Every structure is written in structure tokens, then in C-alpha cells.
């Protein structure tokens, strides 16, 4: 899609990278089931480091009330797995536009 993407192997690495240079990133895309540091916990730490960053969660099924909880963890959007490239493209573009 033309974006510069940096991949972290787990939530801990994602937080460490952002801590080194928060201004380097415009958007963070997290899976809810990443190793070592769950997506929710990584999101909370990332938002503490860079409150302006937009966070997208790749998720499974949502129970009633889950969407509101995602907001409290710092997620600005979520996308249900499995997702298409067109859906991912739309959500990423929307979140990047809102970041400006």
C-alpha cells in the first residue's frame, strides 16, 4: 500500500521501539494475541509514551461493551480478523487522516 512498515516480534519489542523515538511513528497496528505483552497492555504503555499515536487492534469476536473497553486501552480503531487488504487499507488510511 506504499506505507513504510516496521515489524516487532511481540508487544514488548513494539513498546521498546516506540520508547526510543515516539515521533518516528504515525500509527501502531497491534494484534490482540501477541506474545510476551498482550496487545491491550502494549497499547496502554504506548499511549503513555505517545498519546497522539493512533492505535488499531486486529481482533476476534467482540462481546457487548468490548468496543468501549478498547477505547479505554487507547485503541482508536479495530478490525476484525480475518480482514481483507481493502478493509485494512481503509482503516489505516482513515486513522492516518485523523492523526493529522
Please explain how this structure is put together:
Helix content is 44%, strand content 15%. By secondary structure, it is α/β, with parallel strands linked by helices. It has a three-stranded parallel β-sheet, sandwiched between helices. Helix 3 (66-73) links the parallel strand 2 (54-59) and strand 3 (77-80). Helix 1 (11-20) packs parallel to helix 2. The two termini are 19 Å apart.
Topology as a string of helices (H) and strands (E)? HEHEHEH
Counting DSSP H or I runs of 4 or more residues, the number of helices is: 4
How do the strands line up in the largest sheet? 1-2-3
- Indicate the mean pLDDT: 91
DSSP summary, beta strand count: 3
In whole angstroms, the N-to-C terminal distance is 19 Å
Give the helix/strand class: alpha/beta
Backbone CA Rg: 13 Å
Range of strand content: 15-25%
The quaternary structure here is single chain
| Biggest sheet overview | 3 strands, parallel
**Helix share of residues?**
40-55%
Overall 3D form: globular
Q: Stretches where pLDDT falls below 50 for ≥5 residues?
A: none
Amino acid at each position: 500500500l506504499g506505507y513504510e512498515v516496521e515489524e516487532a516480534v511481540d508487544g514488548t519489542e513494539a513498546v521498546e521501539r516506540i520508547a526510543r523515538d515516539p515521533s518516528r511513528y504515525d500509527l501502531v497496528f497491534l494484534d490482540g494475541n501477541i506474545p510476551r505483552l498482550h496487545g491491550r497492555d502494549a497499547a496502554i504503555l504506548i499511549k503513555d509514551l505517545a498519546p497522539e499515536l493512533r492505535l488499531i487492534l486486529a481482533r476476534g469476536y467482540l462481546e457487548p461493551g468490548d468496543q468501549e473497553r478498547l477505547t479505554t486501552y487507547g485503541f482508536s480503531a479495530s478490525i476484525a480478523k480475518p480482514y481483507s487488504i481493502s478493509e485494512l487499507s481503509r482503516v489505516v488510511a482513515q486513522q492516518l487522516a485523523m492523526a493529522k
